[in-house]
């Protein structure tokens, strides 16, 4: 007969093993990023000799150099502008459409909705070829507007799906009350539906913001001039120019990665929700 | 009657912006890809002067383009590693976190940091860690310090190891997705099932095999579909890792499409490649979907 102490020891041993496993994976996740940040604070001389994670001296001037000499300030601003405009655009356009698909009636409603959903399922890997030609034709290539419109389209289907699912479950009483008070349809959307949808809108905002900030291929084919490029594309030009200046390159990578990590840490509740909901979509 | 029409028109205004953007930036490109696939066109001549060549592009892809098939095989190889290594790690981590343990939230937050980063940042950071400046980069120096100097290697420059290195970095970036979905799935399994099994004398392995795995099967299939679709189309990470000198041994289909368009200015051929590849993806996800329906009924 095994004693209680045996089970207790066994439980502690199993828990220790589980923690060891989890911690080792956590270190594997974090160490490369810490190494990137730490390298961005070293100098060209010490970057390959000083193997400590905390360099003796912090060379913050690398960031100033990358920001000014590397022209990263401009690209950072571009990324901020694109991300904000696209997210605002998606929130307005998709919530209007989702509200209509859920609450309003008009001929062709289901066909249109199915069309949006089908787009979510069918991958077209070569679509950037056609988008390049289309924007050329519309004289929108190498313009921020062209890029922003393309990116609004990218996030549209999923956002409409998430919002429509929410509106479908929303109780109708509040809208009825607003209608009796003489509120127009647009007014109900703006003053009743949108405020209620805040939790889903947060998911929509966070996911699309991540998506736009991290987008690469459309920005690559749409922009020729460095002045319009967002960070992800500028990084490559930057790498070409500073191929041997590793601390500057690492500073550039950190500048690109840090905003997204901060947003993630602040909004991780919504990200977890979005991943698990989004998984149901697929 | 008049108010009815007015009201319907009003309703259309709600969907109008979405429909316009969607038509211009999704439907038109979609149709254009399908049409251009049958043309030989350099993108410079007026579109009406492009040459209609029927199925010649597709014939070339299937029979005369070894670099395309190399790229397809490379993507398949990375996908197979992601399906096994990445998803097994993700599942084990989720299983380890699905219990009363300390720091659960910390782990959950940390494991999802790599997925929120861009492929470009991850690729370039790992390139610095693993390949740049032989013998002095982090990985090689670690190998030396643990007494394995014979393993020091230019992991990404050597054609023998490049593709596997790409696949491992891809798994590093991607396992957090699977982890979160698996964890959400595990948490829906009623605890009473485990309790009942334990009362009946089942050990941990038995409950894992007879409760966890069968209950999780739909989630496992779902993660598999997402992994295949995501990994087959991944390419920015590879640009970040191997940079400008894109060699055949790490090329993937989307990079071939990009090269047809930007490198050799063959827009029609690029579209034909896109169609062929898109078909493959649709077929794969359809098979997996049927498979998952089948297992759900069983």
CATH class assignment of the largest domain in chain A: Mainly Alpha
Class per helix and strand makeup of chain A: mainly alpha
Strand runs of chain B, count: 2
Strand content of chain B: under 5%
Distance between the termini of chain A: 51 Å
Mean of residue pLDDT of chain A? 89
Portion of residues in helices of chain A?
over 70%
What value does the average pLDDT of chain B take? 88
Rg on CA atoms of chain A, Å: 25 Å
* Structure classification of chain B: mainly alpha
* Extended strand count of chain A: 0
| CATH homologous superfamily identity of chain B | MetI-like
Oligomer: heterodimer
Shape, per Cα inertia axes of chain A: flat
Query: What about the largest sheet of chain A?
Result: none
Summary, kept brief:
Chain A is an all-alpha fold and 282 residues long.
Question: Can you tell me about this structure?
Answer:
The complex is a heterodimer of chains A (282) and B (298). By secondary structure, chain A is mainly alpha-helical. Chain A has two domains: 4-61; 71-281, MetI-like fold. In chain A, 76% of the residues lie in helices and 0% in strands. Chain A is built from twelve helices and no strands. Chain B has helices at 2-36, 56-63, 66-97, 104-111, 113-116, 119-130, 138-145, 159-186, 191-199, 204-232, 236-242, 253-263, 267-297, and strands at residues 39-40, 51-52. By secondary structure, chain B is mainly α. The longest helix of chain B is centred in the first third of the chain and has 35 residues, at 2-36. Chain B is 74% helix and 1% strand. The mean pLDDT of chain B is 88. Chain B has one domain (65-297): MetI-like (MetI-like fold, Orthogonal Bundle). Chain B is globular and about 75 Å long. A two-stranded antiparallel sheet of chain B has the order 1-2. The N and C termini of chain B lie far apart (54 Å). Classes of the chains: A mainly alpha (282), B mainly alpha (298).
